[in-house]
Amino acid sequence: MTRKKHGFWLFIFSLLPGAGEMYMGFFKQGIGLMAQFSFVLMLAAYLNIGPLLFILPIIWFYSFFHVHNLASLPDEEFYQVEDRLFAGYDIQEMRGYLFGENGRRMIGIIMVVLGCSVIWNGVQNLLYRVTNIFNSEIARMISYSMDDALRSIMAIAIIYIGYRMIRGKKRELSQIEQKPDEQERNGD
Question: Where are the domains of the chain?
Fold first, then answer.
């Protein structure tokens, strides 16, 4: 049962992602946020992908402010809020977005980046262990070189993505400019 709550306990529970929503009676939203937070934490720890942890503060802040926004709603609006698993999104909406053209592309990019990161960490650890047997100075040199190579690859990827975005925007603008010209020719 959802009940509007305020005060000390709301603040305390809002410090844990999803707990504040559950305290107010929005169990699906609370479980969804807890699951997202736990999944990202588990994935980053298990696959040894530290940069993935940057998502955790985003989930935490969303959960914290979501609870306090719910508490500040007028009573009639508060009782109209639906308890959905993904904070306002229906499962069918999420499925349509995730498996639509843009969603599949985004999921594919994320999977490729995560897979490359896992392989990179594995190769780096393997080389470090092999060279550590022979000489620790060589191991440090290889480790630093691998880090520099990864940064260079990421920089190239960022530049390429930026280039593609600029090129795509230019195409859109040229298509928009061509349409009025074509309409004028067809209308005359």
Answer: 8-95, 100-187
